[in-house]
Amino acid sequence: MIHKYILKSIERRVLIFVLFILLCVFGYYSWTQLSIEAYPDIADVTSQVITQFPGRAAEEIEEQITIPLERALNGIPGLSIIRSKSTFGLSIITLVFQEGVEDYWSRQRIKERIEGVQLPGDTKPELDPLTSPIGEIFRYTLESSSKDSRELRELQRWVVIPKLKQVIGVADVSNFGGITTQFQLEIDPNKLNQFNISLAQVIDTIQKNNTNSGGSILRMGDLAYVVRGIGLIRSLEDLGRIVVDTRKGIPIFLKDLGDLKLGELGRKGILGRDFKTDEVSGIVLLLRYQNPSAVLKGVHSKVDELNNGLLPSGVKVVPYMDRIDLVNTTLRTVSKTLLEGIGLVIVVLILFLGNVRGALLVALTIPISLLIAFILMNFTNIPANLLSLGAIDFGIIVDGSIVMMESILKLKEEKETDTLQIPDVAKVAAAVASPIFFATLIIITAYLPLFAFERIERKLFTPMAYTVGYALAGALFIALTLIPAISYIAYRKPQRLYHNKWLEKITLLYQKRITILIEHPVRILQFAGGALLLCFALFVVIGKDFLPELDEGSIWLQVQLPPGISLAKGSEMADELRKETLKFEEVSHVITQTGRNDDGTDSWTPSHIECSIGLKPYDTWKSGRTKRELVGVLRNHYLKMPGYTISFSQPMIDNVNDKISGAHSELVIKVFGDDFKETRELTKKIADVLKSTPGSSDVGIDQEPPLPQIQVKIDRGTAARYSLNVSDISDLIEAAIGGQAISNLFLGEKKYDITVRYGEAFRNTPEAISNLMLTSPNGAKIPVSQVANVKLTTGESTITRESNQRHLTVKVNLHGRDLSSFVSEAKDNISRKIKFDSKKYRIVWGGQLENQERANRRLSIILPLILSVMFTLLYVAFGNLRHAFLLLCIVPAALLGGLIALIARGMTLNVSSSVGFIALFGVAIQNGVIMVSHLNGLIENKVPLKLAVISGATDRLRPILMTATVAALGLFPASIATGIGSDVQRPLATVIVYGLITGTGITLFALPVLYYILETKFTHRKTNKK
């Protein structure tokens, strides 16, 4: 059947050429339609329920908001983890769902559950935008030399954000920084006492005097008029002219009770950029599963519109983080390594084949197979990313074409002066077609178990498995269809071929060596046994991690300041941090975010800073430092700055870690316990032990220590004697001190809050709060101090919960040490040095460790599975167990080269390198299939066993050397690449490149000897039975 297929391909070669031209055109079109990402979206399906309850402390938020919502959300089908954070004025509940749960379905279930929860006041929980942890695709600041923070915030709120939200694929645009305008009445309580007016009366009057009315329709002649009563407040003047009460016929206006002014919403965060201290910033969030490149194209278009006319003169949208830069940088890295790999492949082909024409014809497999892969990726909605493209080894892609071309060239060498006939070409091509098919099938099969991975590792590597599988399928199609046809055209006429003298010498030396080894097999058996033992020993000692660090080309800092400091002081410390960071010549810009944003998606307090450090291109660094070295220098520099506790990360990785484990670090240790005071003591002891464990860095407790509070503790009995309810006192605290938004003011499309509060002098100290006056039902004035105890104390800043139980978290980053050995030593140290009641407290290790353990469990299933599948395919291919078992013996030798290379290069065994080993199994066995198939063919043709092994191994030397060399060199540039985006490629490529060295050595020297031994014994046994 294969013979007939190849014969028809050669006979109808014009049709074949037209077909491949159409495939190339369609492939290029598919490339333009592909979603291109720097890194795949590796996050789980997550949603957040965000509830803002302004003015309330963390304890009230937990009790009144978080716990009721958690109870309602428990038990949603597919829910994996439920976590929450309760902090001042904000509750965030994060729900992580199992793999396979659809985003929109899960969000609908959440909405159904929260709709029935009774929450205090007008509090309304909301879902976060449908984005992912790596969905921040564009960050910018609004900059102007003439407009202040309030004016820029107005432009952001009413011009910039609405315009950017018009882009299809934008989930949301989050603001950070700036002054949000309010129309405020700051009341003088002495005036209220003077006119005997209560605060509640003022609020009620404003609400009743800010309305339009409708009088239906009035008919006048043939026309109908809509009747409107216009009474909405449009300005501070309108607000001031509202009559609250009258005294002896004289109206008392609102303006008589205090100061009317344009105030500001209580600021939660301040953003600074470089040497500018109060900027307005925006973050564009990508709608999940959208094409980031396409969405960014729309964002760039809207930014151009804004900068070229929609914004006032002198105001510009200035980006400081654009995902397209990372995409382009990673594509350049991948393109560079791929082009270098292709170049090396072509050079090797020319050297081995001694024929430029043949080398270039084989090299056609590379672009065409890639274009075929693009067609299939576009059809199945598989995005292209750094790993899926960078993991394609074009040396492996051309292996089938090499074997096909080599067999046809060998035919031509035998008939240099003759014209090749189509049946002859089809015959030699068909002879190698079956080994090519099974060898390619084995390599594709090696990638199939990657689909058995879960969560992060699955999302990271399945696009790679699809891409490589598609490219290999395309390459197989090319090797069996195009190469025979195009080779026939190239070599059908009589022509003399170049004879490679150096290869002939190597072949002669190899033939002598293999003859000696067959006659004296003990050495090779001893070597193979020693290699197996060494392989096991190296596996035990090599360091083990989850994933290599992904370089995003920037640095992200989480900075903890002394607890309880004000937002203004935190902003001052952020200014100092930026100033010190900008002293380093590698730094292009520094952005600090002190506190949290306006929409509640962050839960930080004013004593927390997030800092984004932009870096100049690495090749422009005059210092010669690497990024890792720069991080070390910065860490030491920050240690000299008192009051700053800093941990290092990167923007996307930081967000992913937060979603995975609820903390911003590689490794987390969660300590569960209901008593926060005792739990904190235990957590501090654990943190101290971790700090003393070699390899730890940035150790700290994720939750801030207790913060200072002013508590107004109401005495119910005393309040009752004055006929006052708790609500009377609470309303005073909320409105007079905190400020209460009581109505809205509309100016065209703009909407502002109208708020009421007491003047600052009457609410800024515990004494002032104690002196605030309450009005009893009989009109008596009672100071707060009469019915409540006002005192300074402390309370929790943030209360974190997981699975409905409180916990504290120790966060740890690692420096210069692998994850497995660090965790092993740390656990041992904690068990020896810290004693605690396991019934009261529970310690859970998470973060990357949880991912690593999950991946290891899967790998323990995947590796035996892949070997079983390969064994089955080999059995099908050869029809006997001995040859299938023989070929599997190549695997440990390939493992040996990969392990030695990882250890020598200071790399760890992680998911990336493990995937490299999985791919290596298929590649290493491929050459064995080519060897054994040829030996079997010779024996079937009645060639004596010894002669068949020696001559057959010698015949296969050139194709095996070619396929192994091009496969190794095809990924060699990726194995030494250092640019942004090369981190995940490097371990995978290192394993394949160096594993092929030992694997090929075993294939060429050990495999023929073992084959000879097995066949000799099989022949003797067969003879004895007869």
From TrEMBL:
It comes from the Bacteria. GO terms for cellular component: plasma membrane. It is a multi-pass membrane protein. InterPro entries: AcrB_DN_DC_subdom, Acrflvin-R, CusA-like. Keywords: Cell membrane, Membrane, Transmembrane, Transmembrane helix, Transport. The chain crosses the membrane at residues 12-31, 337-353, 360-380, 386-404, 425-448, 468-491, 522-542, 859-878, 885-904, 916-939, 960-980, 992-1014. One of its GO terms (molecular function) is xenobiotic transmembrane transporter activity. It is found in: Cell membrane. PANTHER family: CATION EFFLUX SYSTEM PROTEIN (PTHR32063:SF17), PTHR32063. Belongs to the resistance-nodulation-cell division (RND) (TC 2.A.6) family. This is Heavy metal efflux pump, CzcA family. The lineage of its organism: Bacteria, Pseudomonadati, Spirochaetota, Spirochaetia, Leptospirales.
